[in-house]
Amino acid sequence: MDEDEGTFAVQLARSAVDAEISNGKVNVENTSPLFNEKRGVFVTLKTYPDGELRGCIGFSEPVYPLADAIIMAAESACHDPRFNDLTAEETITVEVSVLTIPELLSVAPEDRPGAVEIGKDGLIVEQGYYKGLLLPQVATEWGWDSEEFLSHACAKAGLRSKAWKSLETRVFKFQAEIFSETSPSGDIRRYEEQ
């Protein structure tokens, strides 16, 4: 994803957020073929200027064309069930994470921490009906090592924190290209690994 595509992705998500809270409509005008490809994507909303999570919704699998997935994720992030619905009075920034296809960690459970690269890999943990996902930037933002990252992904899935040590638990990793606003509707930057 180049800088122009990343900028467009964030602008599209911003348009979808603005339209969702004002009952407006989003117009998609882009000629980049990337936005017609099916891709996994997450849209994260953060309060400004303190950067607290306000909503984060998306698709871990490539089930929709990227432009549609960004719009649906942005609209849904306005109604993240962990928070009250977003209002027009709130000041937020928008971040878009476009995902690679998740890859199963095919190593012994005790070797999983060594197979995860902090700042590069995101995690999906699955056990039965339980599933949790953490984006790559989360571990860096919280200063976690790979064992802590795995434990928090398990907790996000509703599992005990050490469930990643079990053969019954499947762990996937993925990477993401991440672009975000530096201020509400402001400049857009690519996330760099810390």
Automatic annotation (TrEMBL):
<dbReference type="InterPro" id="IPR023473">
    <property type="entry name" value="AMMECR1"/>
</dbReference>
<dbReference type="InterPro" id="IPR036071">
    <property type="entry name" value="AMMECR1_dom_sf"/>
</dbReference>
<dbReference type="InterPro" id="IPR027623">
    <property type="entry name" value="AmmeMemoSam_A"/>
</dbReference>
<dbReference type="Pfam" id="PF01871">
    <property type="entry name" value="AMMECR1"/>
</dbReference>
<feature type="domain" description="AMMECR1">
    <location>
        <begin position="4"/>
        <end position="190"/>
    </location>
</feature>
<dbReference type="InterPro" id="IPR023472">
    <property type="entry name" value="Uncharacterised_MJ0810"/>
</dbReference>
<dbReference type="InterPro" id="IPR002733">
    <property type="entry name" value="AMMECR1_domain"/>
</dbReference>
<dbReference type="InterPro" id="IPR027485">
    <property type="entry name" value="AMMECR1_N"/>
</dbReference>
<protein>
    <recommendedName>
        <fullName>Protein A3207_07155</fullName>
    </recommendedName>
</protein>
